[in-house]
Design goal:
The chain has 87 residues and is mainly alpha-helical. It has one domain. The chain has three helices and three strands.
Amino acid sequence: MKKLSVAVLVVLISGSGIMQANALPLIVEKKFSNCAALNAVYPGGVAKSAKWKNKGGAIKNKPAVSAKVYNENSSRDRDKDGIACEN
């Protein structure tokens, strides 16, 4: 009985780790053809760093933070505030 309890406990603990790993946002490191394509993956756009400050108008969604994705798509940052395709 103890072996069965330990086995069930191990399965539950390892299963919760898998669910947590899947809950993380997917980072797609590529150059997008336009902001519509980037916003389909990142609805709030992509910020260069966690210390982003929006210079434009109000935004609906918080941007994802990824320096690699931002650098690939920096030409999409029209107001040069460190956020590409914010909306």
